[in-house]
Structures are given as structure tokens and as C-alpha cells.
């Protein structure tokens, strides 16, 4: 009798690490990385300036309104340098280059003067007999004045420096009306320049002072009626880097992030030509 063959049964056991415990470590690792990222963000914010913290907080409160403050809405020259004593010459050259590149301002080269003074970088828009930047005897900006101030706003609005605006006139009496004199005219012209700069992007907090000097600081002292005595000055005030005592009793630089504008105590003496 032939022995009956038994079928061969092969049992394959599949070893799997899935199921309940298979991906648990991935979730735990992701939570760990998220927590570390949050920790580093908090540490970065604690070490950042008040301006950065304000911008971050403003973004979470209202992302659209904080774009300007956080710097994500820049459309101009990202290479604009703050006016401190190390790079003021570069800033001066940068502004002069921007003006030169505008062919419309070729004829106004003699009416724009940029100098380095004790207060900071002084940009002067100088009038002529016909009225270059303002309509004659008025605080109404001319077309050239509006275009040039808009160009300057594009260069100055990204600076951390404060701006100081001055209005100057010649010694010719404005009118017989004592209610409106060269004092009012100089102040009104400075404010007209301020409004246009702010309209084109310069922040409200960036303007530190607006001054009207009438004919008290003549550009041409030996000729008080010279039309070039009529001018608007924009002063980019110095940034001073604060210092703190180090362990050796000296001072060390803490960087420009928290730099403060130097307080001007002595009245300015605008650039004068004899």
C-alpha cells in the first residue's frame, strides 16, 4: 500500500512594526523639533531690538498694516545706508547719483547742494529768481519741487535717522501785511516739504523737527536780497552708536541696532557762502 503524501504547508509570518506603535516616534520627534523652534524664536526675540519686537507683534495683530514696519514692503533701494560718521560719504554719493540719473534734474544741478555738517548730511534745495522749487512768494511746491522731493523720499524713507526740515527766506519783506511775514512763509514751505516727503513714504516718527528761520541764517550774508538765500534744507541727523562700560572699566560698542539720534542742543549754523 502506497503511503499517502501529505501536502507541504509553508507558513510565512510577516513581522511588522506598524500599527499602534509604528509611527509614534515620528510624532514625538516632530513635537520636539517644533518646541525647539519655538524656543529659539523666543530667545531671538528677547535679544532683538524694541523695533523688531514691535514689528513682529504688529504682524500677528495685523499682517497688512505692519508690512511697512517689518520691511517687507520695500520697493526702493535696499542698499540705503544709515547716516553715521563711517558711511556718510557713501550716502551722499548715493543720493547724488540718484539725482544725476534723472535727466529732468540736469538743469537744477546748481540748485541742489549736499554737504556734511556738524548736525548731519544737509540737503539744500536752493531757489533762483524765477522760483525753482516753490511758486514765487508762495508755499505751493512747483512741479520740479514735487518731483525732487519724491525722489529724495525714496532715498530717505528707509533710513533709521531722524530728519530735520528748515525753511529760509531772503531779507525782502513778504508784504505790508504784518499778519503774514517771512517767518510764516519759511515755516509753511518747510511744512509743505514735510507733507510731501511723508506722502511719498517717509514715516511720521522720522521727522524730528520743522523749523522756519525767515532771513536769520542767510546763505549769502553780504547780499541779504540774493534769491539763493531762499531755500529748503533737509538734514539727515547723525546716528550715534551708544556705548556701555565693559568689565575693564572702558567702553564698548553695542552696535547700531539700538542707536539713538544725537540730541542737538546748540542752534544750527547752516552752510553759508560769502
Number of helices: 6
What level of helicity do the residues show? 25-40%
N/C terminus separation: 138 Å
Secondary-structure element series:
HHHHEEHEHEEEEEE
Radius of gyration: 32 Å
- Per DSSP, what share of the residues sits in E-state strands of 2 or more residues? 5-15%
Structural class, by secondary structure, is: alpha+beta
Q: Please, what is the average pLDDT? A: 78
Largest pleated sheet: 5 strands, mixed
Record field, number of beta strands: 9
What characteristics describe this protein?
single chain; 274 residues; two-stranded antiparallel sheet; 6 helices; disordered C terminus
Secondary structure blueprint with pairings:
Elements: H1 24-46, H2 50-61, H3 67-70, H4 88-100, E1 112-116, E2 120-126, H5 143-156, E3 163-168, H6 182-199, E4 207-212, E5 231-237, E6 239-240, E7 243-245, E8 251-253, E9 260-261
Parallel strand pairs: 3-4
Antiparallel strand pairs: 1-2, 2-5, 3-5, 6-9, 7-8
Helix pairs in contact: 4-5, 5-6
